[in-house]
Amino acid sequence: MARDDGRSPDQLRPVTITRDWLAHAEGSVLVEFGGTRVLCAATVQDNVPRWRRGSGLGWITAEYAMLPRSTNTRSDRESVRGKIGGRTHEISRLIGRSLRACVDYKALGENTIVLDCDVLQADGGTRTAAITGAYVALADAIAWMRKRKMCPGDPLVNSVAAVSVGIVGATPLLDLCYTEDVAAETDMNVVMTGSGEFVEVQGTAEGIPFDRSTLDSLLDLAGAGCAELTALQRRVLS
Amino acid sequence: MARDDGRSPDQLRPVTITRDWLAHAEGSVLVEFGGTRVLCAATVQDNVPRWRRGSGLGWITAEYAMLPRSTNTRSDRESVRGKIGGRTHEISRLIGRSLRACVDYKALGENTIVLDCDVLQADGGTRTAAITGAYVALADAIAWMRKRKMCPGDPLVNSVAAVSVGIVGATPLLDLCYTEDVAAETDMNVVMTGSGEFVEVQGTAEGIPFDRSTLDSLLDLAGAGCAELTALQRRVLS
Amino acid sequence: MARDDGRSPDQLRPVTITRDWLAHAEGSVLVEFGGTRVLCAATVQDNVPRWRRGSGLGWITAEYAMLPRSTNTRSDRESVRGKIGGRTHEISRLIGRSLRACVDYKALGENTIVLDCDVLQADGGTRTAAITGAYVALADAIAWMRKRKMCPGDPLVNSVAAVSVGIVGATPLLDLCYTEDVAAETDMNVVMTGSGEFVEVQGTAEGIPFDRSTLDSLLDLAGAGCAELTALQRRVLS
Amino acid sequence: MARDDGRSPDQLRPVTITRDWLAHAEGSVLVEFGGTRVLCAATVQDNVPRWRRGSGLGWITAEYAMLPRSTNTRSDRESVRGKIGGRTHEISRLIGRSLRACVDYKALGENTIVLDCDVLQADGGTRTAAITGAYVALADAIAWMRKRKMCPGDPLVNSVAAVSVGIVGATPLLDLCYTEDVAAETDMNVVMTGSGEFVEVQGTAEGIPFDRSTLDSLLDLAGAGCAELTALQRRVLS
Amino acid sequence: MARDDGRSPDQLRPVTITRDWLAHAEGSVLVEFGGTRVLCAATVQDNVPRWRRGSGLGWITAEYAMLPRSTNTRSDRESVRGKIGGRTHEISRLIGRSLRACVDYKALGENTIVLDCDVLQADGGTRTAAITGAYVALADAIAWMRKRKMCPGDPLVNSVAAVSVGIVGATPLLDLCYTEDVAAETDMNVVMTGSGEFVEVQGTAEGIPFDRSTLDSLLDLAGAGCAELTALQRRVLS
Amino acid sequence: MARDDGRSPDQLRPVTITRDWLAHAEGSVLVEFGGTRVLCAATVQDNVPRWRRGSGLGWITAEYAMLPRSTNTRSDRESVRGKIGGRTHEISRLIGRSLRACVDYKALGENTIVLDCDVLQADGGTRTAAITGAYVALADAIAWMRKRKMCPGDPLVNSVAAVSVGIVGATPLLDLCYTEDVAAETDMNVVMTGSGEFVEVQGTAEGIPFDRSTLDSLLDLAGAGCAELTALQRRVLS
């Protein structure tokens, strides 16, 4: 099956990670997966949420949002509506959990790093692009802290990358763009460490329930995709 | 490894499903997984959300909430705080998606069924109990509609059940209670159809990332658990 | 005049109070007035609101809410609407004031007891059922505290019970069910102590204004009803 | 017992009702009960709330609010806090119900009258002053409508007035000012028609529960007070 | 060109400033510019916002609001809508900035003065009337503080007054009433000190952009108007 | 006086306007004034707000927001706080009014253009950069509409550009960067048409009130700055 943009089923879109995109943030990255563009900013704060004070442990949290015209039709601002939607909440939580998987809270000390992931342009896979880019911003923010001797140890114990996979017309595809995502029978987001283990597996049957062998083929695809993204992250950071 | 309540690793807690728990709802169920008690009410509405009008298709949606003292310490009401938290949003969306997997929208006609899942008492696995119970309430509501000839066809094309699995102290366990859930290194919620296919797979490494074989063992456990729950649903409905 | 359920005008519906309905709360009761079912949970907190700190005095507060499908037609969740309605506010405040009437703040010490009254099923008289049940939950919570020597004295100086009365078709009736409530020309909620004095009297002419003798007959009915409920509370607690 | 301002126990404060205080409203009144000053504005709208459309019946509703510095210490604006408090809700509902008692919905036709009662200065009894003043604004608005032949009949079938009574130091007092209200053991708000019947009776034991004879003496006082206010309303409107 | 109310283009409406309109506030003024009536209350608080604590400096802030029926058609309450509109925000900020221009924060000490400006009746120029009146309430509140020796020095270093000007039918007009404001091509609000300098200049082309000479003529008009208002403020305060 | 970045007092920062920065929007621009970077997206909607329907006239509106880490320290998201701040409201309204000054509503027909101005990086003058950039996005969106024959005429009757000016250390400066803005005694934002007339003049004395000659010198500076920006807009659009 030929994909609209000519990719093979197991091929990522062109992925670029541009560091230091912002002047003020301790770490910042513009990550692009094809037409998807997410601005990831890491902010270092020398304190932790109330429930964690005095523990000696740090914290990582994330907020995800889309600009109103990042998509094909304009969507209302959540600030104007006065509340955050379920999808936004869900993705913010996913990004936070994913990045916490590569951090040693004790080595971080009582500091917080906030990852703001703002989608400037959306073409499918915004949450996985956000995780992949935010990891690089996080690494830069941690380097910034270590230069200033703010951390008792090295908090960065692993890396994380993420990719979407799905079944479109019975074919398992890697890194779905928007039109593929809409057409997918099954959609899965996979977050993996640099050492190839799973951090998150979220698979959803959009239409037709899927069997174990389909699940297996999707996990295989995702594993290869994440390995490629991990290699890119290393290149960009070195 | 012995579990606190003496269960074997692959054993469900005592599960009961009490139909017609409420006088007014078109379908209602009190579902209990051990100490977890969720009240599921299905409401039939003879219209659909604005974006679906004129399509001839129906809709299924769900709302999940916890009573403030369902848990060990009291939590503030979301109505008092004036907003719904991320976790609540996430679970409501999961329940809705799961139940939509067993319904034929066309056979439902332009009607909506709302599933309210209110946790009266929480001891782990509230979202999977909610899905398992809500399915029965949904089936009752559909039967109620069919008796009144409200549907053009039979909307119930499958059944769904759900269970949590996790790794505690390196052992894969089925149907975690609260203390196990807190101790779990990896936590997974699995929603399956009555015919044994996946609707949702949501696995999260709470501490240590997990490898493919761990994932496989958890899916095996979940498959067996869901089959048992499916059998119970059938018994209860017959 | 025969009532729909065959009761005489001065007869309560079957009332049951089930203690310890919840595993976690310090006091918990499922109270039923016929088809009205309210879950009352008492939570002990070892602090008081900011404005009361350092006074040596305790505090009692209450929150009332209805599950969306407790009623004949589903109502939207107040958490989803993002604000609490006037009726909910009004009833929460009534329950709080009523229960404060039976407590000695000094003997309670700087502790707070929160009463959560959640209506699982509504058939008229939910606020009076809530007060009657919450009193028992409160008594259990205070006993729990006294066993742990948390209070400087015995905070429970009285009991409270509540009942609705109203004029339907010119006849004064005790303990209105939903259909009677809707048909009532005048509706009154009366909260009384175990020693027969008034804590709250709230009478409203729904259609036709009422005269003094009507008011007197309603107060008589309510007095007898509250005495009966007081007797039941004592039986249940002993 | 001498009252601070030298009144006898059964004496109202000086009460003034100034009509046409605002240029734009269809009816408007500045009502003063001693130091309590409430601005009541009646707005005529040629439609009814959605749930009443097509019924041929009108509607009366009310909103109550206090200016931030109407009281001794400044209170935050509810608009700034982003939500309406329980007390505000409760009083708005009370005013609306009270005024609905003197209106024939059918004669009003499908029109709504909104009564805005804004407390400019508070010294006790703001809700009863608001009801007493709002009645006059309502009468003016109805006269305005009738001049324009907007109503199928005469909607004003009665009048309403309201007053507070309470027990201070064992003495029943009429029309409590703020310092008396704070000191009251029992506090009651009574709304009556011009023909001397009850519309609302709301009695609350603030400290000590009260017996039937106390209740009777308070109702006697309130009856006389409301009769006096009714006479004033008539004088002012003629 | 004759104005509707017979004024000449450079003439203010009748302006009155009534001090001590409220019993409780430390300073209070009812200011009237023709049919525009604004109640200004100054509240003294012996603390400052969190971000200013420990600085030794005071703070001045303001809140503006309109009663729902101050205008020709009723507008919804911002408290009911649950949020403050852009116009309200903008004017509150303008009033606060304007009054801060005449205060020495150091001489004020760590105290805050809140100016509440509530529009009772609106007929154009509510924000400029509010500033002009609030200055007098502020002066009274500062005098109140100085009598109690709350301030380290004399915080009142200048006075402020404000007026609107605009172009209607090519003619520059002073102090627009509502109908003139609606018809204006250009609308400008000018805040000036008692010594004739500018604090705020806010000019907006409502329809046709304006040139420099138009701007100059408007500033001339405003200068004369503010001088007149300053003289009135002095008279009223002496 | 030398400015930090070596500019002369009447010199703009390097200004760039990049068109078509987004794939989906009908017009989109990344505008940069030195370190200030604003993404402006124009969305065409084939309808108008409710209050304008049936008038045959179009509408232009704008929303302004800052990304949380566009500034030196992170600010909370307004969506998370659940409300829009006063500054955001004020600037959104300013941008909308400014752009409406160059549009003929009748020639636009019953269509709306929404301008979203999101600050990616802030270094002073974000609102004036937003207006200057949004004009170009608007022109592109109108060209897009005209190609599709959506407009009855040519709605673009003029152009608008904006710049900030201020007094720092007694010197009037053009186009303040953040550190200059913070140090300014007087701060003014000026919006002008391409033909050199004023659309908005907003001058604020941050510390010391300013006299007429200061105001004149600031308007001179702004006039020259806007002319330069107008020339750039023309170059970019041709």
- Give the class of chain A from helix and strand content and strand pairing: alpha+beta
What is the overall pLDDT average of chain A?
Answer: 96
- What is the count of β-strands of chain A? 9
The largest contact between protein chains, plus residue counts on each side, is:
A-F, 33 and 33 residues
Order of helix and strand elements from N to C terminus of chain A: EEEEHHHEHEEHEEH
**Poorly predicted regions of chain A:** none
Helix content of chain A: 25-40%
Give the percentage of residues in beta strands of chain A: 25-35%
Write the layout of secondary structure elements.
6 copies of one chain form a homohexamer.
Chain A: E1 15-19, E2 27-33, E3 36-45, E4 59-66, H1 78-81, H2 86-100, H3 105-108, E5 112-121, H4 126-147, E6 160-168, E7 171-174, H5 178-183, E8 186-193, E9 198-205, H6 212-237
Helix pairs in contact in A: 2-4, 4-6
Subunit structure (chains A, B, C, D, E, F): Homohexameric ring arranged as a trimer of dimers.
Protein name (chains A, B, C, D, E, F): Ribonuclease PH
Organism (chains A, B, C, D, E, F): Sphaerisporangium rhizosphaerae
Structure description:
Six copies of one chain form a homohexamer. With 238 residues, the first copy, chain A, is an alpha+beta fold. Chain A has helices at residues 78-81, 86-100, 105-108, 126-147, 178-183, 212-237, and strands spanning 15-19, 27-33, 36-45, 59-66, 112-121, 160-168, 171-174, 186-193, 198-205. In chain A, helix 4 runs parallel beside helix 6 (212-237). The first copy, chain A, starts with 14 loop residues before the first strand and ends with a helix. Chains in contact: A-B, A-F, B-C, C-D, D-E, E-F. At the A-F interface, strand 3, helix 1 and strand 5 of A face strand 3, helix 1 and strand 5 of F. Strand 9 (198-205) of chain E pairs antiparallel with strand 9 of chain F, so a sheet runs across the interface.
